[in-house]
Amino acid sequence: MPNGVLAKSLIHKSMGQENPKQDQIFQESSPPKRSLRQAIEVISSLISYSLPIKVFAVKWQLIRNKLEELNSSLIAIEDCDSCQNPIVSGMMSAVLASARDCYDLARRCVDLSYSGKLLMQSDLDAMVAKFDRHVRNLSGIFTAGILSQGFAIVVSRPGVNACKDDVRFYVRDLLTRIKIGDLEMKRHALVNLYDVVVEDEKYVKIIVEVDDIVNILVSLLDSMEMELQQDAVKVVAVISGFDSYRSILIGAGIIGPLIRVLESGSEISKEGAARSLQKLTKNSDNAWSVSAYGGVTALLKICASADSTAELISPACGVLRNLAGVDEIKRFMIEEGAVSTFIKLARSKDEGVQISSIEFLQNIASGDESVRQLVVKEGGIRALVRVFDPKIARSSKSREMALRAIENLCFSSASSISVLMSYGFMDQLLFFLRNGDVSAQELALKAAFRLSGTSEETKKAMGDAGFMSEFVKFLDAKSFEVREMAAVALTSLVSVPKNRKKFVQDDRNVGFLLQLLDQEETNSGSKKLLISILLSLTSCNSGRKQIASSGYLKNIEKLAEAEVSDAKRLVRKLSTNRFRSMLNGIWHS
Fold first, then answer.
1. Angle, CA 372 vertex, CA 333 and CA 441 arms, to 5°
2. How far apart are the C-alpha atoms of 217 and 221, rounded to whole Å?
3. Buried b (16+ CB within 10 A) or exposed e, 416-442
4. Is the dihedral of CA 95, 101, 102, 104 positive or negative?
5. Could you tell me the pLDDT band of residue 518, with boundaries at 50, 70 and 90?
6. pLDDT tens digits for 236-250?
7. What pLDDT is stored for residue 237 in this prediction?
8. What is the DSSP string of 213-234?
9. Are 531 and 570 a contacting pair, CB within 8 Å?
10. Which residue in 289, 368, 370, 288 sits closest to 329, CA to CA?
11. pLDDT category, 87, cuts 50, 70, 90?
12. Are 264 and 223 in contact (CB under 8 A)?
């Protein structure tokens, strides 16, 4: 049967014009149940009938939205014993009368038989208002407690391969329960909603498409019922994890309610709100909204409070880290004592808090010398060195973050490096070079490589500490990157006369370099680096003597003939002065 005929037939039946067969269908049902079922059928048919209408498209979409909302409420009533209530029964007559009027308007729009556009627009606006009033009236009845969990029929969750319509129906059912159920029903629906969005992204997509559900979740964040607030926050935290849906949450005005949860919600609600804000503030455009609602102050208060849990502090740190990219907000944080607060947090025993606080300190000091100096002044270096200390039990992730922060905050300043050394940082770094696992050794090598490129005093200190022998060990590593860093760092250290003398005191060092040189392919990157180190060693008499008296001179000679970088210079160095007679016959150019 075509939609128009079906809708017209159902409306006629609802007005008391049923045929005898129809009477038989409903003869075992009570009149309230019958009128409710008719109302649901009429509304559903009316929605379908209005879909092809081309004129006044925006108006008809508004009407359909209200019809769908009304239909969800009617289905919820049918699932309970509430249809027996005389108030509900009386409302069905009004709903059916409005449906009859709406059908008449729809028919005239389909046939283009309306008398004037302005008049039809006015009639359609009135129809939207009618259906809105029905929805609000039903909502008022439900709020009064007519609908309860004990009488509700639970709609089963669709299977894994369910179609989109089944998923949408399930979500709409949950929405209806959240909107009009009692406290128990609302909570049960929110828990079910959380379960599905955690497990399946398609439910998140449906949620943001279904009218009102995001707005209702946002409104529940301000609920006086803490349990509802907690459940709503959990759902919001999941949705905010998807890049494509964050703008919808922002558009629904979620920032303000989340800040209010941080200020006065339960501990569980605060944790969820902080996680949501951390995801939402990945876009710096939202930073000012958080600031405008007092979020920066609320977050700093959480981080400074001894009563805050690690589960709350960690995401709160994350939000502030995201906000630190806005200079005005960063200045406000500094004025409020954020630096000292986060240095204290860096000493926390909780890994998440440690990492988040260290990341914050790096972000806030990045590219800002005055803030970097403030971090140093407030004891930031000592706190970071303590996290990196191998004698204290820490996670590898915490140590990695501490080392990176030390590099970024200290290696550009000679005075900061001096402070580092006074706290025993050199010994710590050397420990991980010698005893760390592969990843720890590589991180330590990268840091030592950077450190070797700083001041002359630092190079001397590294030479005295024993770094040169450790760099030699990495020269035959499988990774070219590791070999290159070790060679460049060693070259830098032996450029200092004191270190050269110390290096050649052990005959094995020079011998090992020459052995590696003999193994490398001609013109390889590693060979060039080894020659560079040997060239530096020729500035030392003992070094020249060890190289010249070794059995690898022919190899060096061949490299010079092959035009390998710096090989000619090395031969010249070895061929001069008092070693000329020793090197008689060695290649000259």
1. 120
2. 7
3. bbeebbebebbebbbbbbeebeeebbb
4. positive
5. confident
6. 999 999 988 999 999
7. 95
8. HHHHHHHHTT-S-HHHHHHHHH
9. yes
10. 288
11. low
12. no
Structure tokens at 98: 């409005």
In angstroms, the CA 504 to CA 506 distance is: 5
CA distances from 291 to 59, 253, 284, 325, 330 (A): 39, 14, 12, 13, 11
Dmax over CA atoms of the chain, in Å, equals 128
Burial label for 219, CB within 10 Å (0-12, 13-18, 19+), is middle
Residues 465-513: pLDDT tens digits?
Answer: 999 999 999 988 888 899 889 999 999 999 899 998 898 888 888 888 8
**Distance between CA atoms of residues 153 and 143, nearest Å:** 18
Is the Cα dihedral 481, 482, 485, 486 positive or negative?
negative
Distance CA 487, CA 467 (A): 12
* Residue 156 per-residue DSSP state: P
pLDDT in tens, 297-315: 999 999 999 999 999 999 9
Q: What's the pTM value of the predicted model, to 2 decimals?
A: 0.69
C-alpha distances out from residue 551 to 38, 151, 267, 545, Å: 104, 96, 73, 12
Q: Are 422 and 380 in contact (CB under 8 A)?
A: no
Q: Tell me the C-alpha distance between 55 and 57, whole Å.
A: 5
Residue with tokens 């208060």: 301
Q: Residue 149 and residue 184: Cα distance in Å, rounded?
A: 7
Q: Rg for the chain (alpha carbons), in Å?
A: 38
C-alpha distance from residue 413 to each of 382, 419, 460 (Å):
16, 10, 16
